[in-house]
Amino acid sequence: MTSHAAGPAMTPNHHLTPQVATAQVGLVVKDVVVLIDREQGGEAHLATNNLNLHAAFKLSFLLKVLRKHELVSEGTAQKVRDFIAANQAPLPGTGAGAPAAAPAKASR
User: Fold this and answer.
1) Is this prediction's pTM over 0.85?
2) 65 falls within a domain
């Protein structure tokens, strides 16, 4: 049985509490559904726990759309891309940031 559990955002100190709680009552969590994948290593972090991430949108895609419609300046978009690249979630037990593709620079 697959359960979609809502819970706090993944952070380096978060220990997959919904997954542990659901396992205690016999449910198995296999998939995590989010609206926006911030592309900061959450997908790799979840994969280390045999969880599949399903995102409606990736932040890089939303940035591309916002730039295309000139709703965000290129300077702001670049600051967001730089922030994402500099703030990758560490993989459990490694202290190293999760590998994540840097969001692509939007072309016009």
Assistant:
1) no
2) yes
